[in-house]
Write a structure and sequence with these properties.
Layout: E1 6-9, E2 14-17, E3 26-30, H1 41-61, E4 66-70, H2 77-86, H3 90-107, H4 123-135, E5 139-142, E6 145-148, H5 164-169, E7 185-190, E8 205-207, H6 209-221, E9 225-231, H7 235-250, E10 256-262, E11 265-267, E12 270-271, H8 283-286, H9 291-298, E13 307-309, H10 311-325, H11 339-346, H12 351-367, H13 370-382, H14 390-399, H15 405-420, H16 424-436, E14 439-444, E15 447-452
Parallel strand pairs: 3-4, 3-9, 9-10, 11-13
Antiparallel strand pairs: 1-2, 5-6, 6-7, 7-8, 11-12, 14-15
Helix pairs in contact: 4-7, 6-7, 9-10, 11-12, 12-13, 15-16
The protein binds zinc ion.
Zinc ion (ZN) is lined by residues 31, 213, 238, 242.
């Protein structure tokens, strides 16, 4: 497709045409999870959004031309704290949460990134980057700690539009008597005896969180690459610090050319966050909803807007997919999606616009022939929907029925008896009760059959 891709670039705050550095080797780095607690739907939004961007980039430039790197932070203060609270070892905790995270990715029908590096497997490279920063006079050691000297980097604050005075006045900086200046941030710190540690020229210790992403992106994508993504809450200080470290260690002009940030998920307009106590874990949805319902809900709002979460949204998405599955057909040949239909996705990942296209294609397919159904199914699959066969979709619903098959047959029997007695009020009540539980009954040729709604 010749059409250009446009993205909202947080660096400069405007929508820009995406021009890759090398069309055959497009690099995208997205900050992955810190594996200390069960993933929640706030974590799920970037997973789905950047999975979609991965698909759109591959569609335009070819499957082998896009390198998608998403890290796993498996060493961090939060992890140490959580392992103490849960009274399990750090390795047990991080392995367990990483496994849950991968299950959630599968549940949401997200593709596996090209590389998924773990922080603990790249500590040596982190030590090397700190040494470079010290050599380049952007970092200093004090009492086994190494700090980045923010004042020496003139572009600090460019991404988040902050200046140093605001930062200090906003007191979002961690105070320490070991720092030369309050805004300096840690690159390396010593570990207590009961905490994980690695050897370094500054003694046994561990890296700062921001450094991990600078090192892992460099390893797979080089000093400068195309797209860096993540949630909006990471812009400051995390992404600002990543830029400072990478540009100053690698002596380059730029770190990432396009910064793409997804907005928050809110609940009754309040930001969803662990600290607010209003989080919904992804695992909470698994029993009730097929992962595709959650995926559709997560892309129902444009990524740059806040997404307000409620049950109604999930019910709507469930109904939409129930309807769409009526037109699902297996597709065994290559079908190209029309350029016009893809337009919304190329235009800054306008997912609500593409969902409107899917509704239009569904209307055609509903009345149409096999080919129109294949076109509709292919377009849904492109954004990771209708990823299961019709049978799998209904099997999941069957498993989640609130009634057993015997209960259903008993209810139908009760209803028939009521009808025999001409008690239509009771008969209708039973019918509606079943409908509420997802069972639709039909009377035909004197027989009553049931199916899942
Ligand atoms: Zn990061």
């Amino acid at each position: 497709m010749n059409k250009d891709i446009f993205l909202s670039n947080s660096l400069g705050n405007k929508k820009e045409k995406f021009i890759p550095m090398d069309q055959k080797k497009i690099g995208m780095y997205v900050c992955g999870p810190t594996v200390y607690d069960d993933p929640h739907i706030g974590n799920a939004r970037p997973l789905v959004i950047f999975d979609l961007l991965f698909k759109v980039l591959k569609c335009k430039y070819g499957n082998k031309s896009v390198i998608y790197v998403r890290n796993i932070t498996d060493i961090d203060d939060k992890i140490i704290q959580s392992s103490k609270e849960k009274n399990i070892s750090i390795s047990e905790l991080t392995l367990n949460i990483t496994e849950k995270f991968h299950d959630d990715c599968k549940y949401l029908n997200c593709e596996i990134p090209t590389h998924e590096p773990k922080a603990t497997e790249n500590i040596e490279l982190m030590v090397v980057m700190i040494q470079e920063l010290i050599k380049n006079k952007f970092a200093y050691e004090n009492q086994k700690h190494v700090y980045f000297k923010v004042k020496n980097f003139k572009d600090y604050g460019k991404l988040s539009n902050k200046n140093l005075d605001d930062l200090i006045a906003g007191s979002r900086v961690e105070l320490s008597d070991k720092k030369e200046n309050p805004e300096d941030f840690v690159l390396w710190k010593p570990s207590n005896d009961d905490e994980p540690s690695w050897d370094s020229p500054w003694g046994k210790g561990r890296p700062g969180w921001h450094l991990e992403c600078s090192v892992m992106s460099k390893k797979y994508l080089g000093n400068t690459f195309d797209i860096h993504g993540g949630g909006r809450d990471l812009i400051f200080p995390h992404h600002e610090n990543e830029i400072a470290q990478s540009v100053c260690a690698n002596k380059t002009e730029k770190f990432a050319n396009y910064w793409v940030h997804n907005n928050f998920i809110t609940m009754s307009k309040e930001k969803m966050a662990k600290s607010q106590g209003n989080i919904l874990k992804i695992s909470d949805f698994k029993k009730k909803y097929n992962g595709q319902v959650l995926r559709l809900a997560l892309i129902s709002t444009h990524y740059s807007q806040p997404l307000d979460w409620n049950e109604k949204l999930m019910d709507e998405c469930q109904r939409t997919l129930d309807k769409w599955y009526n037109c699902y057909v297996p597709v065994n040949k290559k079908i190209l999606i029309q350029d016009n239909d893809l337009n919304p996705l190329y235009d800054d990942l306008n997912t609500p616009g593409f969902i409107a296209v899917l509704h239009k294609l569904y209307d055609k397919a509903k009345e149409g022939n096999q080919e129109e159904k294949e076109i509709f199914t292919t377009a849904c699959k492109f954004i990771g929907l209708l990823g299961q066969s019709k049978e799998e979709w209904y099997d999941f619903k069957k498993q989640n029925l609130k009634l057993s098959e015997n209960d259903i047959l008993k209810k139908i029997d009760d209803r028939n008896k009521a009808r025999d007695k001409k008690d239509y009020e009771l008969a209708d009540k039973i019918r509606n009760e079943l409908l509420d539980k997802g069972i639709l009954i039909e009377d035909k040729d004197g027989k009553t059959t049931w199916k899942i709604k």
